[in-house]
Amino acid sequence: MSDRPGIDRPPRTWLMLGHKVGDNGQVLALAEGLGWPYEVKHLVYKKTELVTNLLAGPTLRGLVVERSSPLEPPWPDLVISAGRRNEPLVRWIQREAGGPGKVRLVHVGRPWARHECFDLIVTTPQYRLPEKPNILHNEAPLHRVTAARLAEARRRFADRLAHLPRPRIAVILGGNAGPYSMDRENGAVLGWYAAERAREAGGSLLVTSSARTPEKAVDALEAELDVPAFLYRFRRDDPDNPYLGILAWADELIVTCDSMSMLAEAIATGKPVFIFDLARGRGSHRPPVPPAVRRRTLLERLADLRLQPIVYRLGMLVGPKRLTRDVGIIHRRQVAAGRAVWLGDPWPPPVAPPGPLRDLERAVAAVKRLFDPDWVPPERVLQAGSIGSELLARLFQ
Question: Smallest Cα–Cα separation from 247: which of 279, 207, 285?
């Protein structure tokens, strides 16, 4: 009697979860969309993992084994991962299980290893990956915001949010990322415009920070709020986090431009979405600093200096495309599609509504094809190359 995963039984599936909430959310979203039973592997990494990731092939050397879930037989049929740190681990699992064909590797986002190391890569536009048979190009990151979850959150948080006057405007704060800085001035500017929008409409604000939001930015935003408002300051592992409740009760949403996941989740509500640009200067869509908002002093500018934006801009100019990302691609495409506008621009007049994002459906279908009897795996690379070949592939593929 045969025992073919996907035909005779659901594939045995492992989810590789690390320390990044966004990566974990995408992995879980894909697994839930598949509807197959899965086993979660919680992973903790060494501080030196970058070295082994760059210079080695399949390995567990970057893993803190005693603090992580066991990686041992019975081996899975499918491993879903995201993030650089998980790549050597999933390739090690595949090698130990018997090599390509025994375990399908699905990676979400942008891998650092050669693309042919994976059976499927589910990616998004900012990474600008090439067109290849094993790469699925989606419009935005996968997420877990569904109509059912929103309905449940609306019921659960009614006592905390329903009394606030409509329109209820959600303000979803990200943080420092890539070229963007969520500093005091940006927090104050966003708070002023959000409050002005609520005041003119006779409504209220539903504000939430996130794991990356600096407290000084939240403080500055809160100081500008002179309208009815609910404000939640993010707490890690808080079982009463009202984020989904805010999405559910909002009539429209303002999202900072740094997080593609938060943008995708806001769009999933089907409500008007406004993007707040954290950038400054030429080409920025950030609305002007109101006279009432204090600009940054020279000392604050110096204190706000971060190396990451400098490295980001330098990388975009001279670095390998392989190691850079351009989130502006997603901004432009979603604005062009009519799913979002920049804060400060008017919401367009009613026309034929844009269709919802179908990224999860496409990803689920692509994963299921891996277990079709007629599926042919991509041309594989050697599971362990020389140090030079591994490093060069990561830089210039």
Answer: 207
Tell me how crowded residue 396 is: count the other CB atoms within 10 A of its CB: 10
pTM of the shown model: 0.89
Backbone torsion region of residue 128, taken as left when φ is above 0, otherwise alpha when ψ lies between -120 and 50, otherwise beta: left
Residue 310 confidence (pLDDT) above 70: no
> Same domain for 174 and 129?
no
209 and 330 part of one domain: yes
Domain housing 379 = 13-139+360-396
Q: Per-residue confidence at 382, pLDDT binned at 50, 70, 90?
A: very low
Residue 303: the pLDDT is 74
Spatial distance between the Cα atoms of 39 and 15, rounded to a whole number of angstroms: 6
For residue 252, give the nearest of 171, 148, 143, 136 by alpha carbon. 171
> How far apart are alpha carbons 162 and 117 in whole angstroms?
50
User: Residue 66 has which token pair?
Assistant: 């005693």
